[in-house]
Amino acid sequence: MPISEEQLKIWSHQGAITTAKATADSVKNALSNYEFLPDGIKFEVYLQGSYKNDTNIRGDSDVDIIAQLNPIFYSNLSKNEKEYLGIKSASYHWNDFRVDVLNTLKQYYGSANIKEGNKSLKIKANNGRLPADVVVCAEYRKYNSLNLYDYISGMIFWSQNENREIINYPKIHYENGKQKHQNTANWYKPIVRMFKNIRSYLVEQGEIEEQLAPSYFLECLLYNLPNDKFGVNYQETFYDIVNWLNNASLDNSICQNEQLDLFGLTPEQWLKDDAESFIQALIDFWNQ
């Protein structure tokens, strides 16, 4: 028997957002209260992830926050190309910024409330503040040509365990999701939340493993859907989306930032077999 319209509508609801904003503001205040940067060097603090994209659901806890170093940047240019464009090396780098941010957060919140993770600095929850993952990064510019202003702006940082370069485009992800939401008559984000809640339910019921369908990959998968698959009502939208996913070729799927293929073998990509297993779990769930 299909899932009821009322249940699907409940699963489309957004989780609390007030405490997420307060958490981000707290981190921004923490860093702004300390003058640790050399003259001319600035930074920005902003939300990313489900709280930023309005796709958070009840039960989401950790707030993803970016602390981005500006105007120093990294790029895909070779040494010779940088010289051609007149780009000079900086004396203050990402690793210097990370150390300074870490020390500043420890001074503000207390060392016992800060933990170094592989990709982020983790702040414990306290006094109404949610736990936060602070990703310390610098701007990344993906140049399309040898034109100083012809680039796509993202962010870059390095993991601590493997010293692996990680590049992402959270601002583009946000803008593309915002446009998708408008193009689907404001159905896109509620439907993302609906599928995220269904994923959580399937995990709780032991139908799938939690790591099978991470939230970010699930959101990116739905971004690839034609706009006309969203709308009318929740039951019809669920049916149309799952039917489309089951019959369409997923080979050319992209991440919501449109800068990376969704499926691949890097840690920033999803395994296609896992996506297909998740789609089958959705079919089984509908048919139960």
Key phrases:
Beta Polymerase, domain 2; about 40% helix; about 15% strand; 2 domains; alpha+beta
Q: Regarding CATH, which class of the largest domain?
A: Alpha Beta
Number of domain units: 2
Number of strands: 7
As residue ranges, the low-confidence spans are none
Helix and strand layout, with pairings?
Elements: H1 5-11, H2 18-32, E1 42-48, H3 49-53, E2 63-75, H4 79-85, H5 94-109, E3 114-116, E4 121-123, E5 132-143, E6 151-158, E7 165-168, H6 170-183, H7 188-204, H8 215-223, H9 234-247, H10 272-287
Parallel strand pairs: 2-5
Antiparallel strand pairs: 1-2, 3-4, 4-5, 5-6, 6-7
Helix pairs in contact: 1-7, 7-8, 9-10
How is this structure best described in words?
The protein has 288 residues and is α+β, with helices and mostly antiparallel strands. The protein has two domains: 18-168, Beta Polymerase, domain 2, CATH 3.30.460; 174-287, no CATH class. Helices cover 42% and strands 17% of the residues. Strand 4 (121-123) and strand 5 (132-143) form a beta hairpin. The longest helix has 17 residues, at 188-204.
